[in-house]
Amino acid sequence: MLQDKPLPLLKPLKSFYERLRYGQTSADFVSKGCIPWTPGYERYKWQAISKVVYDDNFASIIGTERYGYRIDERIVELPWLLSTLPRGPQRLLDAGSALNFHPLLKHPRIAEKKVFISTLAPESHAFWNRGVSYVYEDIRDTCFRENYFDSVACISTLEHVGLDNTLLYTDDRTKRESDASSYLHFIDVLRSRLKVGGRLYVSFPFGKAKSHGWFQVFDGAMVDGLIERFNPSASNEVIFRYANDRWSTATRDEANDAVCYDINVDKTYAPDFCAFSRAVACLELVR
What b/e sequence results for 234-256 when a residue is b if at least 16 CB atoms lie within 10 Å of its CB, and e otherwise? Predict the structure, then answer.
């Protein structure tokens, strides 16, 4: 369990909501009604994530009453990844920097691996002392050689590829793009960097297809196209959906009308205070 102390700031915080949500305790968040993205939210979220990944009980508690209550999709994506990722030493690429948090990097399934993080721009905290290697690049034009990694984790990154990444992630104006199909080339690059038999773990918002300018939601046809593009030798798909004040597994049909609530742009909440994505797809694809 994490202690209530300020988290390191890991991305450029440009919106009022991004600046506000750091540096408060989880008790502050709970006492004021558990409103996502308000003071204490990040502390509350990371305490919940840490508990489930270190207790190693994700399969038994997903879907239970108030699991992930008013927490964004990281509360299912990260436990899913850590419960699925093979044990033992490997070369692991984090494509997008979702793992650049101390509670994750010290987790046994991550700590025993050689971790490489590829992301657009430096973040304000890094973990070189844990042996993590950082590369700042557009991974569509990566410096990594082919057939190098045993596993690639791409958590909530695919939906941003080819779109406007200047809202939160970089000041590089060349990354203010509007090519919603660019993620297919991105998949090609990730696949080529995996060894034969290597595994890609990828997650993204799922439901009613829509571009929000800086990210997009994938529908079933887009997911099928992505899987076909990767051409896996084996695959596994899990859909998670937020409803009835909890995250649960779901079928595609149950989640095909899911939407996202973009607090950074719309500054409005869902009636049930769903924090961001109503549903996410998590895919394990074997080269």
Answer: eeeebbbbbeeebbbbbebeebb
Contact 189, 152 (CB under 8 A): no
- First vs last Cα of the chain: how many Å apart? 36
Residue 175 · residue 12 · CB < 8 Å: no
pLDDT digits (tens, 9 = 90+) for 36-79: 999 999 999 999 999 999 999 999 999 999 999 999 999 999 99
List the beta strands (DSSP E) in 120-245: 133-136, 149-155, 194-205, 210-211, 216-217, 234-243
Q: Which residues are 108's β-sheet partners? A: none
Cα dihedral across residues 7, 105, 240, 165: positive or negative: positive
C-alpha 12/C-alpha 9 separation (Å) is: 8
Q: Are strands 279-286 and 194-205 parallel, antiparallel or unpaired?
A: antiparallel
pLDDT of residue 263: 87
* Domain ranges (residues) in the chain: 73-286
Distance of CA 199 to the CA centre of its chain: 17
CATH number of 73-286: 3.40.50.150
Specify the pLDDT at position 155.
98
